[in-house]
Write a structure and sequence with these properties.
Strand order of the largest sheet: 2-1-5-4-3
Oligomer: single chain
CATH superfamily of the largest domain: GAF domain
Largest sheet: 5 strands, antiparallel
Number of strands: 17
Strand content: 15-25%
Keywords: ATP-binding, Nucleotide-binding, Transcription, Transcription regulation
Structural class: alpha/beta
Organism: Gordonia oryzae
Protein name: Fis family transcriptional regulator
Distance between the termini: 45 Å
GO molecular function: ATP binding; sequence-specific DNA binding
Helix content: 40-55%
CATH topology of the largest domain: Beta-Lactamase
Shape: elongated
CATH class of the largest domain: Alpha Beta
GO biological process, one term: regulation of DNA-templated transcription
C-alpha cells in the first residue's frame, strides 16, 4: 500500500509539472499516460474545468449492447462484492450500458456524469479509461493522478477494447471504474477477459449476410497455400460494409498497397455485379489472377471472396488486334492510370473499338467517360476525328445534329447524356446514328449508371459493348497523379505544388462531383496561393467535410466558419468554440455532423 501511495505522489508531482512546464515535466510517468497527457493538452482539454458532452442519438439496443449484456451481467455477479462500476461504450466513447456493483461508487460517478449517453473521448475529458483506449487501441489502466482532469483524479479505471472479429476495428470499450483508494490490479485482467468474450459474441451474432461472407472465406481458406481475401461491400446500407479479410498467403503475396488496390478493384466489380475471373497488374509489374465469388443477400451483393494466384502467362488481351482501318498519324499515349478498375474499363473499350463495336460508357458525371473513350480511340486510330454530340443540347435546339459527310479513314461519334432526353430526341439521334455508322463512324454513348427511371440506353444500333468507369473515390491510387496534372494544367507557368498535408485531406474526401469538383477545389486553392506549396487552409471548406447529405446554404456557411476557426486556432477546440460563441460540446456535435476532419 505504501508503494502505491508513493507512486501516486510521484505521478501527482509529475502531473503538476506537466501542466506548468509541458512535456518535460512528465519525466518518470508511463509512456502511455504521458502521451495521453500531451494529446489531451493539444486538444484543448482544461485540466481544472470539467465538462462532458451528452448525446441523445445513441442506440442503447445496438448489436454491441445485446452481445455484451450477458457478459456484463455475469461480470457484475462475479464482482458483486467489489466496489466497482462496469460500463460499456459504443465506438464513439459514449456510454451505452452501466452496472453498479456498489451503489456508493455509482453515486460518486454520477457527479462526474459517468452515465448513459455521455461521451468520454480523450479529446473531451482528457486521459481516462475509456477515451485513451480508443487512442491506444489496447487495454489501458488509469489510476488516480494519471487522469488529466482534476475531477477524475479520485477514480481508478481499467478499460479494454472490444474488437469486431471481422473488421478488426474497436467496436466499443468495456470499463471498470472504482475509487482510486480501493484499486485492485486484478480488475484489469477480469475486464480484458470479458471484453474478449464480447468480441466472440459479436462473431456469433453476425447477420446472415456477413456470416455467409465469413463462412465462404473460411471454406476458401481451408485450401492449402491458397491466397484468399474477402471484401465486403462498402455501401453503408449493406451489412457487409467495410469488411476486409486476408489470409497469411494473401498477405505474403500482396503488400498493403497491393491489397488496397485489390480491395478497390473488387468493390468496383461489386458495383457492376460482375464476379468471375480477372487479371490485374501490380505496381511491380506482376500479374495476379483473381477469381471472385459474389455473396448475395436479399438480392444485394454484400461481398466477394477472392482466390488469388500469380499469373505467369502473358494475357492474350495484351496483343493488339488488327484495326478495322489503316492508322492515321500516331499520337503519343498519355501516362496510363494505375487503378485496376480504370485499367479494366480502358481494356474493354480498347477491345471494342479495335473490333469496330459500338461502346456504351457508363459512369458518374465528371468521372472521365468522354476522356477515356476519346483517348482510347486515338490510341487505336491516331488523330482520326472525334465528333461529340450533346443530346441535351440537341433537344434544346442548340446543336447541329451530327456529321454530314462520309469519312475516308475512321472517325468516332460520341453521343453524351442520352439518358437525359425524351423519346422523340432519342428517335432523332437513332436516325443520326444509323446514317453516321453507314458513313464509317464508330459509335460511343455516355450515360450515368442506369436507374429505374432511366434504364440502360443500349437500344441504339451498333452498341455491342458496355464499359463502366469508376468514380474518383474508387481511384485512390490515381489521385496524386491526377492532382499533379490538374495543378499543372491550371497553373502551367507557375511553381505550384501540393503539400503532403493538403494531399491527405484531398485523399480523405469522397468527391461526389468527381474530377470537375477536384479541379474546382484546386482552382480555388490556386487563387488563394498563386505560387508555392498549397496548404490545407488553401483548400475549400468542403474538402475537410464528408457529410453524407446535401447541406443548405446556411449549413455550408456554418461549416466553413467552423473550419476557419479551427484553422485559426491551430486545431484547439476550446479556443475555436470561444471564438465562434459556441459551447465546446456544441462544437464537437457540429464537427461530427459535418464530418469535419484534418483540422
Amino acid at each position: 500500500m505504501t508503494d502505491i501511495r508513493e507512486r501516486q505522489l510521484r505521478i501527482a508531482a509529475a502531473r503538476a509539472d506537466f501542466l506548468e512546464y509541458g512535456p518535460a515535466g512528465a519525466a518518470g510517468v508511463d509512456d502511455v499516460v504521458a502521451a495521453s497527457w500531451e494529446r489531451s493538452h493539444d486538444a484543448g482539454v482544461d485540466a481544472d474545468r470539467y465538462t462532458v458532452a451528452f448525446f441523445e442519438d445513441i442506440d442503447f439496443d445496438s448489436r454491441l449492447a445485446r452481445c455484451a449484456q450477458p457478459v456484463i451481467e455475469r461480470l457484475a455477479r462475479d464482482m458483486s462484492d467489489v466496489p466497482v462500476t462496469i460500463a460499456l461504450t459504443d465506438a464513439k466513447a459514449r456510454i451505452v450500458d452501466r452496472r453498479d456493483c456498489s451503489t456508493a461508487v455509482g453515486r460518486v460517478l454520477d457527479r462526474v456524469d459517468f452515465q448513459r449517453g455521455f461521451c468520454f473521448d480523450e479529446s473531451g475529458v482528457g486521459t481516462n479509461g475509456v477515451g485513451t483506449v480508443f487512442e491506444v487501441g489496447a487495454p489501458v489502466t488509469v489510476v488516480g493522478n494519471e487522469h488529466f482532469n482534476q475531477s477524475l483524479v479520485q477514480f481508478a479505471c481499467a478499460g479494454a477494447p472490444v474488437f469486431d472479429p471481422l473488421t478488426g476495428r474497436v467496436a466499443g470499450v468495456l470499463d471498470a471504474s472504482m475509487l482510486a483508494d480501493t484499486w485492485n490490479p486484478l480488475v484489469d485482467a477480469l475486464i480484458r477477459s470479458a471484453a474478449a468474450d464480447i468480441g466472440r459474441n459479436l462473431l456469433l451474432d453476425r447477420s446472415q449476410a456477413k456470416r455467409a461472407l465469413f463462412e465462404t472465406y473460411l471454406r476458401a481458406d481451408s485450401r492449402p497455400r491458397q491466397a484468399v481475401m474477402a471484401v465486403g461491400n462498402a455501401a453503408p446500407q449493406l451489412t457487409g460494409a467495410d469488411t476486409v479479410m486476408a489470409n497469411e498467403s494473401a498477405r505474403e503475396m500482396l503488400s498493403p498497397a497491393d491489397q488496397e488496390r485489390v480491395v478497390e478493384f473488387t468493390r468496383f466489380l461489386m458495383s457492376r455485379h460482375d464476379p468471375g475471373a480477372r487479371r490485374i497488374t501490380l505496381d511491380d509489374g506482376r500479374s495476379i489472377r483473381l477469381r471472385s465469388t459474389a455473396i448475395t443477400y436479399n438480392g444485394d451483393t454484400v461481398g466477394m471472396v477472392l482466390l488469388l494466384d500469380d499469373d505467369h502467362d502473358v494475357p492474350s488481351g495484351s496483343v493488339r488486334l488488327q484495326a478495322l482501318r489503316s492508322l492515321s498519324t500516331p499520337i503519343a499515349r498519355s501516362e496510363p492510370a494505375s487503378s485496376p478498375a480504370w485499367q479494366a474499363a480502358r481494356a474493354e473499350a480498347l477491345a471494342a473499338l479495335e473490333s469496330g463495336t459500338g461502346v456504351l460508357v457508363i459512369g458518374e458525371p465528371g468521372s472521365g467517360r468522354l476522356s477515356l473513350i476519346a483517348e482510347t480511340f486515338h490510341e487505336v486510330y491516331g488523330d482520326a476525328p472525334v465528333v461529340v454530340i450533346d443530346a441535351q443540347r440537341v433537344e434544346r435546339g442548340e446543336q447541329v445534329t451530327g456529321p454530314e459527310n462520309a469519312v475516308d479513314e475512321c472517325a468516332l461519334l460520341v453521343i453524351r447524356h442520352l439518358d437525359k432526353v425524351s423519346a422523340p430526341t432519342v428517335a432523332t439521334l437513332t436516325d443520326l446514328v444509323a446514317a453516321a455508322t453507314d458513313a464509317g463512324y464508330l459509335l460511343a454513348v455516355t450515360i450515368e449508371p442506369p436507374t429505374d427511371d432511366h434504364p440502360s440506353a443500349s437500344s441504339l444500333p451498333g452498341i455491342g459493348q458496355s464499359v463502366t468507369i469508376p468514380p474518383l473515390r474508387l481511384r485512390g491510387i490515381d489521385l496524386h497523379t491526377i492532382v499533379v496534372r490538374v495543378v499543372k494544367a491550371l497553373a502551367p507557368q507557375r511553381n505550384s505544388r501540393i503539400s503532403p498535408k493538403a494531399m491527405r485531406i484531398l485523399a480523405a474526401y469522397s468527391w461526389p462531383g468527381n474530377i470537375p469538383q477536384l479541379r474546382e477545389a484546386l482552382a480555388e486553392a490556386l487563387r488563394r496561393r498563386p505560387v508555392g506549396e498549397i496548404q490545407p487552409d488553401d483548400l475549400p471548406g468542403y474538402c475537410r467535410a464528408n457529410t453524407t447529405r446535401a447541406l443548405t446554404t446556411l449549413e455550408a456557411t456554418e461549416r466553413d466558419a467552423i473550419i476557419a476557426a479551427l484553422t485559426e486556432c491551430d486545431g484547439n477546440r476550446v479556443r475555436a468554440a470561444a471564438s465562434l460563441g459556441l459551447s465546446r460540446s456544441s462544437l464537437y456535435r457540429k464537427i461530427h455532423a459535418y464530418g469535419i476532419s484534418g483540422v
